[in-house]
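Intended use. Records like the one below are meant for learning the mapping from a protein sequence to its folded structure. Do not use them to infer anything beyond what is encoded.
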Amino acid sequence: GIDPGALIGLAARDESVWSAEIRVTPGLTWSLLAIAAICLSLAVMSWVEGHRVAAVVVAIPAALLAVIAIGYRRARVTVDASGFTVRPLIGWPVYRVPIDEVLEVETGEAFAGEFGGWGFRRVPGGVAVIMKGGSAISVTRRDGRRLVVTVPDAGTGAALLRSNMQRR
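Structure written out for the chain above:
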């Protein structure tokens, strides 16, 4: 279950930032890269044998798979006075909840099965960034949409976000 947790005491002029890196398991990244490499090998063989269209049809998805495997293998989660942000290594998409839009912050455990798998997921009522199962921050916006992120030390990030909500 999700627990609201405690506040961090900050003076009115204190500026604190909490940041954590989240990563997918290395095995998943290597598996996706291996699949991309096999597909690219097939594309090269098709090209050499004169099957240009087949080579392109195989090469494009393989290249995209490699970009996804590398670009989305980790992300940065940040809490500061302006709000809550999740930004993958590749830089897009960025999920941001400005402090004025934060209605509620909770912590708890979250697992891939609850959200339809690992990764950056559109789910009913919001978005989930599930890199590994375990501790998570759940931020509910004033309009009811949620952003759930699995991240180490979720309690500290959530406490700072709650403290920043109190200060606005």
